[in-house]
Specification:
Low-confidence stretches: 1-26, 122-126
Number of domains: 1
Helix content: under 10%
Number of helices: 4
Oligomer: single chain
Largest sheet: 5 strands, mixed
Mean pLDDT: 87
Distance between the termini: 53 Å
Length: about 300
């Protein structure tokens, strides 16, 4: 064995290179640390937190919920020729056993408008199937990582892509972390990079997958804008859970936080279609967020 073959090469190593020694470095970090330093066992303690720490009594510390949602906040790659990428994201968090202990984070991206696929419908209509609001989402599954200093890692992510639509158009898929691109600046198995189709906002794990998907393969990610976008996530945007909602129930509407136009959305109300706070006055609205939240047991 040559001397060079014994060195740890971070580009080819099957496991993480050591932090000290073992080669020339510097090594790319793997795993994520929360600002509080809390581990999985600090954050998930069913039956041990009171309502000051865990308002929805699901066993997950509310502070950890916010820290995790921010730490694994996806980087979204938007298209420069998309007609409207405005959004007002919210999130929900729950524990689940998914081949191991996991915390699921539902990112409700909440676009204000869907401009329709980039083709004409005839009669001088530039785009087909436009609608107010766009209820696309991402579910990140995070869990324990072996490092004591960076104890969290992304395990899987499910990316909505025309979820629950007809005509074989639903390209929603769940991917293992190693099959996802890492967000720029993120450690491996941290925040993912997600490609967002022009106008329709379907989520894909890569540009090439995006360019061969959607109805009649009409989704495309051919013109990324070259900017770094993440979701605007803060602790105050936690939706809670269906049995104890914080925001978005019939008695706790989510008001537009950009224009203060008085319009509201309801994330937990059955059949409440998502209208993007009605920035536009024409067209139907997107499907209810309640359906996808319920489908993923939030």
């Amino acid at each position: 064995m040559t001397a060079s073959s014994t060195e740890c090469d971070p580009n080819t190593a099957v496991i993480e290179c050591p932090e000290d020694g073992g080669g020339t470095g510097p090594w790319r970090l793997m795993g994520v640390a929360l600002p509080s330093g809390k581990s999985f066992d600090d954050c998930y303690r069913p039956g041990q937190f009171d309502t000051n720490v865990d308002r929805d009594q699901d066993g997950v510390d509310d502070g950890c919920e916010a820290e995790l949602a921010i730490a694994f906040n996806p980087q979204i790659v938007l298209m420069s020729n998309d007609c409207d990428t405005r959004r007002q994201p919210y999130f929900a968090v729950r524990y689940a056993y998914s081949g191991g202990d996991a915390i699921f984070i539902f990112y409700a991206i909440s676009y204000v408008y869907d401009c329709g696929p980039p083709f004409t419908c005839g009669n001088d209509v530039p785009n087909c199937d436009t609608h107010r609001g766009d209820s696309e989402w991402i579910v990140a599954e995070v869990g324990r990582y072996s490092s004591s200093t960076r104890p969290w890692a992304l395990k899987y992510a499910t990316l909505s892509a025309h979820w629950n639509t007809d005509w074989g158009n639903d390209n929603t898929a769940r991917y293992a972390a190693e099959d996802l691109e890492d967000a720029d600046g993120s450690p491996a198995f941290g925040a993912p990079k997600i490609w967002v189709a022009q106008h329709k906002h379907a989520n894909y794990r890569s540009q090439s997958v995006c360019d061969a998907a959607g109805y009649f393969n009409l989704d495309n990610c051919e013109h990324p804008d070259g900017l770094y976008h993440t979701l605007d996530i803060a602790a105050a945007y936690n939706l809670g859970r269906s049995f104890i909602p914080f925001l978005g129930a019939s008695y706790s509407p989510v008001y537009d936080r950009r224009s203060n136009n008085g319009n509201a959305e309801y994330y937990w109300v059955p059949a409440a279609r998502f209208c993007g706070w009605s920035y536009y006055t024409s067209g139907s609205c997107a499907g209810p967020y309640e359906e996808s939240l319920r489908a993923y047991a939030f």
